[in-house]
Amino acid sequence: MNVQYYTPMKHPSHPVPSGDRLMAHLLHRCLEICGHQVTLAAGPCTYDGIGDPLIQQRLRAAADAQTDSLLQHYAQGAAKPDLWFTYHVYHKAPDWIGPAVSRALSIPYVIAEASYASKAAALAWEMGARSAELSIRSADLVFSMTRTDRDGIADLLTPRQLHLDLPPFLDPAPYAALPRSRHQDGAPVELLTVAMMRTGGKLESYRRLAEYLQACAQKNWRLSIVGDGPSRNDVEQAMALLEPGRVRFLGQIQEADLLQVYLQSDLFVWPAAGEAYGMAMLEAQAAGLPVIAGRGRGVEHVVCDGKTGFLTPEGDAEAFAGVVDFLISDVIARRDMGAAAAAFVRTERNLDSACEILRRGFDALPRRPLKAHR
Fold first, then answer.
1. Distance between CA 310 and CA 338 in Å, rounded?
2. CB–CB of 296/313 below 8 Å?
3. pLDDT tens, 167-223?
4. Which residues are paired to 141 by β-bridges?
5. By C-alpha distance, which of 277, 293, 244 is closest to 144?
6. Helices 279-286 and 255-263 meet at what angle, rounded to 10?
7. Is the distance from CB of 18 to CB of 53 less than 8 angstroms?
8. Cα separation of 73 and 185, whole Å?
9. Helices (DSSP H) in 116-157: which residue ranges?
């Protein structure tokens, strides 16, 4: 099947790494593994992070122009897709292209990771929220990655629409191919966090992390931070609360180097304020790291509490510091949880599992004669 693939929030070739970019890549790979011919749509990024109606109007105009261009392209004899697949639709990054093209070509419209919050429609993202709602209502098939997203769109869907769970996943092969570094007796326990540095939940998580780790000052640990962004000065200021030598800032690094950092670390820590689910926590587990995180939004979909790590009540400094202290002190518990974490990703959150869910969803779509869209 020929699949037109669109990522309105962030193009897979975007230079800044993020969980959204990683998932866009992984879904692209899965579609190809399933045997589909995938074409990346040239549509504009529609992300408006500040809530400016004028920006949204300009983005909408650019998307409408791209829709007209695509339909003209097909009308002139270009091969038409059999299915439109959009990754990540919500009020800050609506899809103004996929529904219109799918309707014009009479092809299925599919979304992976659709989110909707009715309160956003009353805020500065009203245009985006209404458009996201219309996209979700028009989809033939929606894959939800967390229970929060699934519950949020439940009232928008009708019985004719297919709705499947597609838990966050990744390719565990690179992590299994390399040996983990062994922790040396007497060396600091290597804590790690990987996150962009920007305002909102990310910056709040960094500030909480600095606060929480102060309670573990008597333990022998060192924190490495991978990430960069416009709030770096604020993050550095927050981490200045910790004694000198405790924190290393590694900046934005290449994927191969990040893999080595994961394999050289002992424990992943992240308060996860407002986190959608957190691909870095899934990567950490693939590398054999237990994860300590705040129990927010979709984090429970990537960390098995008490088995592959610990989830603490969001904002509970004492609980977070307590389990950090425990896993720093107990090397056996840390290794057992790390092994369970790697097995969880390897057996349940891999490409094959995701491909099977995609196949099941596509197979359930109503069949249309191929001549109708060629």
1. 12
2. no
3. 999 999 999 887 877 777 789 999 999 999 999 999 999 999 999 999 999 999 999
4. 110, 162
5. 277
6. 60
7. no
8. 65
9. 126-138, 147-153
